[in-house]
Amino acid sequence: MKILFVVGIIFVVLALIKIYAYRRFLRHTFIFSHHRVLLIVLLSLLYIGEVAFFFLAKDRGFDHHTYIALGSCVIVSYALFLACIVGDMARSVGKVIEDKSHILDSQRRRFLKIVLDLGVLALFIIFSTKSIKNALNIPKVREVEVEIEGLDTPKTIALISDVHVGKMIQGEFVRGVVDRINTLNADIVVIVGDLVDENIEFVKDFLLPLNDLQSKEGVYYVSGNHEYYHGIKSISAFLKTLNLTILENQNIELQSFNLAGVSDLAGRRFGILPPDLSAARNGLNPNKPSILLAHQPKFVRHNDVSDFDLVLCGHTHAGQVFPLSIFVWLDQHYVHGLYQVDSKTQLYVSSGVGFWGPAMRFLAPSEIVNLKLKPKHYA
Q1: Which of 76, 80, 287, 297 would bridge with 313, disulfide CB 3.0–4.6 Å?
Q2: To 10 degrees, what angle do helices 200-207 and 171-182 make?
Q3: Higher-pLDDT residue of 153, 44
């Protein structure tokens, strides 16, 4: 019922965006001011494409090219909406200036209107191409320093999450991520869920570059909610054949700290491999600091993680496109970056490597995180 409500809200919002665009173009744009029917047809086709995308996105028979075509409708709609918003803001400012100056004649007003319309078109092109580029490019490395009490020597962790290997993100992208991680010479590599977003039989070959990940003390993985959507057991079985150590509610003692991992919260809903924090922290070496891997940051809100010095999460995509970060915050409470949970425990939420749905990211850049852990010194 909750999912149906969310989907309904999405479709209503998409429809309102089309109504806004229709009124905006009809009133203020010379291109469509005399072509009402054409405008209605174009916006209706755009809306149909968006609805089809969200309905068919989980269909395993949904081929790559159709996925791109329908996903492009979402990108176009979003970029069009942002461009119209900025254009209307500029028009409002111009209106205020015009009312105060009283010097613009009708010819100049028409000229400025054409300039504004062309500006909206330029913004549409910029927003759409930028959002696609942000999604499809190999993420840059973000360096984050974290002080850990009781750490005996500096350590580095290469952190990625939310790769979403599937219809859009495939082997070449994974290879680029692996190559960039390997330049960091990290002590360990961690993958914090949503690595796979498709039936495992479809993506096996795309995941093989993960075997080439280089680290001094291993590569570690915990599940995300999307692995459950596509068969957590079969996905886990294949991942165990790769150069990965899967932490399913368990921990391992490394040279300078304990590393624990819990399965995703989706396991409770599916009744398969639910998260078990008690099992994950059982046997932690109390003489070493402890780090926990958990896909969703709201796990920290609903569980006592005070045994851990640092929790590493993903899931949020930092909103993926502005202003969805607001809704992410309402659900997860944490969006992106380093947080102090309590006097001991810190939390880092990654914006992720890939994307979900259409190939778009805007004002929410992807990242490969190079966590530099340092011993905490007191003044």
Answers
A1: 297
A2: 40
A3: 153
User: What pLDDT digit, counting tens, does each position of 314-327 carry?
Assistant: 999 999 998 888 88
User: Model confidence at 101, in pLDDT bands (50, 70, 90)?
Assistant: low
Looking from the CA of 61 toward its CB, the CA atoms found within 13 Å total: 0
Tell me the pairing of strands 337-340 and 346-349. Answer: antiparallel
Q: Could you give the residue range(s) of every CATH 3.60.21.10 domain in the chain?
A: 139-375
**139-375 under CATH 3.40.50.150, yes or no:** no
Phi–psi pair at 205, nearest 5 degrees? -65, -35
Instruction: Write down how long the chain is.
Output: 379
Helix-helix angle 232-239:200-207, to 10 degrees: 20
CA proximity to 278, closest of 256, 252, 298, 303: 303
pLDDT band at 279 (very low <50, low <70, confident <90, very high): very high
Bridge-based pairing state of the strands 188-192 and 155-160? parallel
Instruction: Count CA atoms within 13 Å of residue 247 on its CB side.
Output: 30
pLDDT digits over 62-93, tens only? 666 777 778 888 888 888 888 888 877 877 77
